[in-house]
Write a structure and sequence with these properties.
It is built from 20 helices and no strands. With 456 residues, the chain is an all-alpha fold.
């Protein structure tokens, strides 16, 4: 038996353990968010959630549009455990965080004017300081992810979230103001930073600029930067576009629906980011067909389980919203159905871009993300112009089908293409998406009829 074959069970065991920590922690985290959301929707008003959706979109946009790929570099690079490499990466991240905060302050007034939301002028500079805190995060977080040591990371994230949520609810009860969400989010970031520095093992970071490490980081991160710019369109483009077409209140209702329907996709992204890069990296190094087969089976389980969760959420959407929320949020039910159904086709190919990163092919990663974002955004805009929100989400669903040939081409080049998985799940996704939309056609038609195209 070869060394690679001996290592295969070890990798699979670490992957399963990492999956348990990641999925378990994510479920707890989302349960906490869900519980706090139910409380906060009763203490605050829909416009508060619309404002925070815009703030989150802008801050994530700044982060993604300047992403230098430090996390991915540390996870896949041969020097990912060397102090000089890690300290240079930390210095780069810190400088980026400070610059992004200054840019968030500068964008406050233009964003307020674009979205007719004057509160953004004061909210963005305060909320944007979280970008500085993110830049201060120690690289030992990424090192732990590199080696699939995820238990302590999840514990830190949950502890900081619990304290931040408690503060957020207390402030909302006292003030009935959107500032409760702002200060609660900032407090969560501060607590997480303190716990990362004090509880994660490894040497402390310090300012360091090694030219060789900087060159390697920036060379790899150049394509990541471009990919992240398009990634912004994938993850936040809906709110950036809908924020212009919807009122702040309607955007808040949409954000509630997105929160409820996005749980499976967010879980998938968490698992893929933390597990698939190490798995594909070691698979490529081992050149072991048995290991490749096991990773393929993991993809089948992942797609099947997440797809099933999306279907369940789509089926129970209107009932769930009516049971949990007051009538101000009633439209979130049919919107939740449409979001969950539209998420099914893109789910099929969600792991292939991580294979490119694991192999150090950041250019190929960029090409896949760019194509996916360009097609999805184009169809989303055309849909919203022609048929409002339902048209936009239909465009998102169709984009998963249209982009498939190109994604499959790149996956085949990397020798990770799983034809039976892709075609089987894509067919099931299209049939199921159409079925759940048809099952709730009355609720969707009612929502469209009651609300004018200008509101949605």
């Amino acid at each position: 038996m070869t060394q690679a074959e001996n290592n295969a069970p070890t990798l699979i065991a670490r992957l399963l353990r990492g999956a348990a920590f990641t999925s378990g922690g994510f479920v707890i985290s989302q349960a906490l968010r869900f519980g706090s959301n139910l409380i906060l929707t009763r203490l605050l008003f829909p416009e508060a959630f619309g404002l925070m959706a815009l703030v989150t979109m802008i801050l994530m946009g700044l982060a993604l549009l300047s992403d230098t790929g430090v996390q991915q570099s540390i996870m896949q690079h041969a020097r990912g455990d060397e102090p000089d490499f890690l300290n240079t990466a930390w210095t780069l991240n810190l400088a980026r965080g400070v610059l992004l905060w200054l840019l968030a302050c500068a964008l406050a007034w233009p964003a307020a004017a674009l979205y007719s939301a004057p509160d953004l002028i004061s909210i963005l500079p305060v909320a944007g300081f979280a970008l500085v805190l993110l830049g201060l995060s120690p690289t030992r977080v990424f090192t732990a992810q590199r080696h699939l040591l995820l238990g302590r990371i999840m514990g830190i994230e949950l502890a900081s979230q619990i304290v931040g949520i408690a503060l957020m609810i207390w402030l909302a009860w006292l003030t009935n103001s959107v500032w409760a969400l702002v200060w609660g989010s900032l407090a969560t970031a501060v607590i997480k930073l303190a716990l990362d520095w004090s509880l994660l093992p490894g040497p402390a970071n310090r300012l360091r600029w090694e030219p060789r490490a900087a060159r390697e980081l920036l060379q790899f991160g150049g394509w990541i930067l471009l990919a992240s710019a398009f990634g912004f369109l994938l993850t936040q483009g809906d709110r950036a576009i809908l924020g212009v077409h919807l009122s702040i209140e309607a955007l808040g209702v949409y954000n509630i629906a997105w929160f409820l329907a996005s749980f499976p996709i967010l879980l998938t992204n968490a698992l893929v980011a933390r597990l698939l890069i190490p798995a594909y990296r070691e698979s490529a190094a081992a050149a072991n067909p048995a290991l490749d087969a096991r990773i393929r089976r993991l993809r089948v389980y992942l797609t099947g389980s997440v797809g099933l969760m999306l279907v369940v959420l789509a089926l129970i959407g209107p009932w769930l919203v009516a049971w949990l929320y007051d009538p101000r949020y009633a439209d979130a039910g049919p919107i939740m159905v449409m979001i969950a159904a539209a998420s099914l086709p893109p789910l099929v190919t969600i792991t292939y871009d991580q294979a490119a990163l694991a192999r150090g092919e950041s250019r190929r990663f960029f090409l896949m993300i760019a194509a996916r974002a360009a097609i999805q955004t184009t169809l989303f805009i055309l849909g919203v112009l022609l048929a409002g929100l339902p048209g936009a989400l239909l465009g998102q669903a169709l984009s998963g089908l249209m982009i498939y040939p190109l994604i499959a081409y790149h996956a085949r080049k990397m020798r990770v293409w799983h034809k039976a998985h892709d075609l089987g799940f894509m067919l099931a996704a299209l049939i199921t998406a159409a079925g759940v939309a048809l099952a709730h056609r009355d609720a969707i038609i009612t929502m469209i009829t009651i609300n004018s195209a200008a509101a949605y």
